[in-house]
Design brief:
The protein has 155 residues and is mainly α. The protein has a single domain, classed as Growth Hormone, Chain: A (Up-down Bundle), CATH 1.20.1250.10. The chain has six helices and no strands. The protein starts with a helix and ends in a 7-residue tail after the last helix. This is Interleukin-6. It holds the Pfam family IL6. One of its GO terms (molecular function) is cytokine activity.
Length: 155
């Protein structure tokens, strides 16, 4: 919808130049793909990374809710579901206190930085957040599916 409504597309040069958001990612280095670690350690590290990433994405999704008014209801639903999933996965971690949750000051600082953008950059930022959130969720689903298919994980 972003590409159609605002002509913000994947190959836009502005998008490539602007992508300094440091959005969460699920990668092999983060422990979301098994390596030489014990499986329990792998599982815990992966779940911590996923839960932390979801908590971080909440601030970005709140920004989208403010700037993408035509989809406010859908984004509100996405925010709620993301928060619920973050809490659920956090409860599966051996030590839930190890899940990194941005404090209110950090969240407000990020929101202020995002709000300071010009209108055309807002559209690109919204697109980048949604694109990276989609990628994060695709990898999260794969990781959780992998964990669920093993003996020691039940969801």
């Amino acid at each position: 919808q972003m590409c159609e409504k605002f002509t913000v597309c994947e190959n836009s040069m502005e998008m490539l130049l602007r992508n300094d958001l440091n959005l969460p990612k699920v990668t092999e280095e983060d422990g979301s793909i098994p390596d030489s670690l014990t499986f329990l350690s792998f599982q815990d590290k992966c779940l911590r990374k996923i839960s932390s990433g979801l908590y971080i994405f909440q601030t970005y999704l709140e920004y989208i809710k403010e700037t993408f008014a035509s989809e406010k209801q859908n984004v509100e639903s996405l925010c709620y579901s993301t928060e619920h999933l973050a809490r659920t996965i956090r409860q599966m971690v051996i030590n839930p206190d190890e899940v990194m949750i941005p404090d209110p000051a950090t969240r407000e600082s990020l929101r202020a930085k995002l709000r300071s953008s010009k209108t055309w950059i807002e559209k690109i930022t919204t697109h980048l957040i949604l694109r990276d959130f989609t990628s994060f969720m695709e990898k999260t689903v794969r990781a959780v599916r992998y964990l669920k298919n093993t003996r020691s994980f039940s969801a």
